[in-house]
Write a structure and sequence with these properties.
Elements lengths: L9 H42 L28 E5 L5 E5 L5 E3 L1 H10 L16 H12 L5 H16 L8 E4 L3 E4 L12 E3 L1
Parallel strand pairs: 1-6
Antiparallel strand pairs: 1-2, 2-3, 4-5
Helix pairs in contact: 1-4, 2-3, 2-4
Length: 197
């Protein structure tokens, strides 16, 4: 004669599944934070790597001092057309060239970087600090974004644009001032850049 085994009730199974679901949610949140942190570290590493001079076998690598940006030699855009769809994704056309598809978060970042505001020191739109970008992204996305997440989005935008050689260098970084998109400032009353919704 077999011993009788108590089968779990529906309530016990439901409680057990809910507990597993909460653990999975916590693991996902931790994985997202870790991914943001790793992207931020990778971006900072790339910045540091760009500053290191080529290694001479007789010398240890040294950190080079950055020369001031010569903005006349940097590429810049005259017009940026951003066609945003209902889900927040978009296609961006720079100076009439073929549109590049962007995800909703990268679209929000581009809107922030190309805005005609921020700290102005030349003929291009102003520089935006990471804090300003975080606040503006929260307006667009209704979500809080860490500094590492902002750096990761800048990295993604730069990679998408750099696939077309003419767009290389349009996302600019200044360690004191922040980030900007190298588009010329609008003259009063002109419409050289716009968002189509």
């Amino acid at each position: 004669m077999r011993p009788q085994v108590n089968k779990p009730t529906v309530e016990i199974v439901a409680a057990w599944l809910a507990s597993i679901g909460r653990k999975i949610d916590r693991a996902r949140a931790l994985a997202d934070k870790t991914e943001e942190l790793l992207y931020g570290i990778a971006c900072e590493f790339d910045e540091l790597r760009r500053q290191i001079s080529p290694v001479n076998p007789t010398m240890a690598p040294r950190i080079q001092r950055r020369r001031p940006l010569v903005l006349e030699s940097m590429p810049n855009a005259g017009s940026v057309t951003l066609v945003v769809s209902g889900d927040g994704s978009s296609a961006v056309s720079i100076d009439g060239r073929t549109g590049i598809p962007l995800t909703p978060l990268v679209t929000a970042l581009l809107r922030v970087l190309k805005a005609d505001c921020g700290l102005v020191n030349d003929h291009l739109v102003g520089w935006k600090s990471v804090d300003v970008i975080q606040a503006a992204l929260k307006e667009y996305t209704r979500q809080q974004h860490s500094k590492a997440a902002v750096k990761e989005l800048v990295y993604r935008l730069r990679n998408l644009l750099d696939r077309q050689p003419d767009n290389s260098g349009l996302v600019q970084t200044n360690h004191r001032l922040g980030y900007r998109f190298a588009v010329r400032r609008r003259a009063p009353g002109s419409t050289t850049e716009h968002d189509d919704q």
